[in-house]
Amino acid sequence: MPTTNNYLSPAATLSNPFPSTNPILQPTGSSLGVNTYLGQPITIHPTNVKAPYSERWNLDMQFQLSTNTMIDVGYIGNHQVHLSYSNCISCIPLLPYLSRRPGKDATVQNNLSGSVPNPFKGIPGMTGGLATASTIPKYNLLQAYPEYGNGTTAGSGITQQLTPGAGAEYDALLFRFQKRVSQGLTMNVNYTYSHNLMSAQLNPGGPLTYQENASDFPNHLSITGVYRLPFGRGRSYLTHTNGFLDMSIGGFTVNTIYQYLSGAAIPWSNIPLFANGTNYDNNVKISPRQVSGVLDKAKFDTVSNDQPSTTYNYRTFPLFYGRQDATNKLDASILKDFSVGERFRLQYRFEAFNVLNHTVFGTPNVNPTSSTFGIITSVTSVPRVLQQGLRVVF
Q1: What is the pLDDT of residues 325-341, one digit of tens each?
Q2: In the predicted model, is pLDDT for residue 115 greater than 70?
Q3: Residue at 181 is within a domain
Q4: Of 88, 134, 269, 285, which is the most buried if we count CB atoms within 10 A?
Q5: H or E segment at 47?
Q6: Residue 388 domain flag
Q7: Is residue 299 part of a domain?
Q8: Global pTM?
Q9: Is residue 304, in this structure, part of any structural domain at all?
Q10: What range defines the domain where residue 266 resides?
Q11: Residue 151, by phi and psi: left (phi above 0), alpha (psi -120 to 50) or beta?
């Protein structure tokens, strides 16, 4: 801190840069033994870290339709093993005590959050709130190794990083149509239908389950094409035209890129409570282009006092549900070549990004108690952009 007396004098000086208000903490090394970091959250690593690896397989078939056209149909599979994740070791014994009710469970919440005498107060080597607080919440004593952590937050004790056991599964069907350059036209059409699942925990310290993730985009269509218009010198039509007419209609090339990509899965940080009294309703549909209401709010319980707690309720609702708006974008450009003598060529470029000015909406608010629940207030796309340029080739 720069000062302790409202800038009447500095807190530190060059002769004493670390005064008693901001002392250097000397490393304790191994002198405290098992009492090291008492009263503080700690991070550990497993003694046997497993190296992750990936198993891949694919099948691909190509069919030639004509001299310059072909289709390609294939399948790709990928299984990732021994992926690591961070696991809350302290949270594991607490899981059986969490409420299984879909909504707020006042009995469980009051019981687990109730104050009990702090057995760690005054213990030599204890630091933080556990060293001075007379009482602490009951759930802190139900955790594994309660002597670690800040004494007030569930799950603040011991976290094991690089825990092996997570995995991922990716499966994709591929289709490709290709037309090689002939008569001035080349085209590629690529379509992928895929599913990407990754294991994750619904509850800190709980079991891993396979579920959707932020990298899952089931449908991806991409179409690219280049067409050299067949007019003017060196082209199929009007190849012997005069210079003025060739300058007007010859030397044109059209490029297009179209892309459709499924929207990203929508993350739900809160546990929703549905009007049917459960934590899941198959009838809830997400309409990602209805910016004023992507879902039917009548199917949700939006009363704040009814909502389940992420601390005291056992979560069964998935981390991701529904999808935001899909990418639907067309880019195009027109090129015009002018010959200037034998050594120079001038190219005029007119390029348009997001030609149709299609808006891609952002993620909706999925907090049931928010006044903007189910409403989209952002966009992820850029508006139509037009640009021109000249290129000299020599």
Answers
A1: 999 999 999 998 887 77
A2: yes
A3: no
A4: 88
A5: none
A6: yes
A7: yes
A8: 0.81
A9: yes
A10: 212-393
A11: left
